[in-house]
Amino acid sequence: MNMALRYYFDLMSQPSRAVYIFLKQNNIPFDPKPVALRKGEHFTEEFKKLNPFSRVPFIDDNGFILTESVAILRYLSQKYNVPEHWYPRSDIKKQSRVDQYLNWQHLNLRLNAAMTFQHLLLIPLMRNKPVDQKKVERFKLGLAESLMYMETYFLKDQMFLCGDDISVADILGACELMQLNAVMEEKLYESNPVLDAWMKRVKARLQPNFDEAHQITYRTCEIYKKTKDNLNAKL
């Protein structure tokens, strides 16, 4: 008997949010399996039996375990035959454009946005130490370069990252940038008219699922506002 697709995720995780939004946007039925990373639930023996990498997101499709958000999005696109604009299947050039972004983002936008967030909030909290401003500035420099390439190479004169319609690349990109909102650094992209307009287009296309998936991000921002002075001084 076929079971519902099981989705393991934590909406504090950018890739988890991206897959969650994609599932919702395409009305793909799934059994939600939230994992509280802050509680270390991904390190339990029960979790490791399913995913030895101790990461989210991952899916269990009737016994077929698949990790890594990019692989999951490609799998879901093909299995559920979603509209071509999400991940083109019939046009190899359009597909390759999406793949190009998916491969690029790991060590560029994803790395720099995630590490900016972590060094401003998570690492100081976990280690009970003030923010390491040198590391923050280092990743902000990398982030500035990534944003430049998003504007001048991926977007150029088109509406979305890989063409004139939204794709999985846009979901992943937007979810990464929203991590900056959690630490009040959204000006890093909102100050760029091209990126700001793109972000607004992506959000509009993905509502109401975008805001639903980012409720925890909005709450984290409120927490950060209250603790910012302590994080920058002494916890």
TrEMBL record:
Domain GST N-terminal: 3-84
Keyword Nucleotide-binding: no
Alphabetical list of InterPro entries matching this protein: Glutathione-S-Trfase_C-like (IPR010987), Glutathione-S-Trfase_C_sf (IPR036282), Glutathione_S-Trfase (IPR040079), Glutathione_S-Trfase_N (IPR004045), GST_C (IPR004046), GST_C_Theta (IPR040077), GST_N_Theta (IPR040075), GST_Theta (IPR051369)
Keywords per UniProt: Cytoplasm, Transferase
Gene3D superfamilies named in the record: 1.20.1050.10, Glutaredoxin (3.40.30.10)
Cell compartment(s), UniProt: Cytoplasm
Source taxon at top rank: Eukaryota
GO cellular component, one term: cytoplasm
Name of the protein in question: Glutathione transferase
Reaction(s) the record says it catalyses: RX + glutathione = an S-substituted glutathione + a halide anion + H(+)
Assigned protein family: Belongs to the GST superfamily. Theta family.
Main location: cytoplasm
Domain GST C-terminal span(s) in chain numbering: 91-227
The keyword Protein biosynthesis appears for this protein: no
GO MF annotation terms: glutathione transferase activity
Species name: Sinanodonta woodiana (Chinese pond mussel)
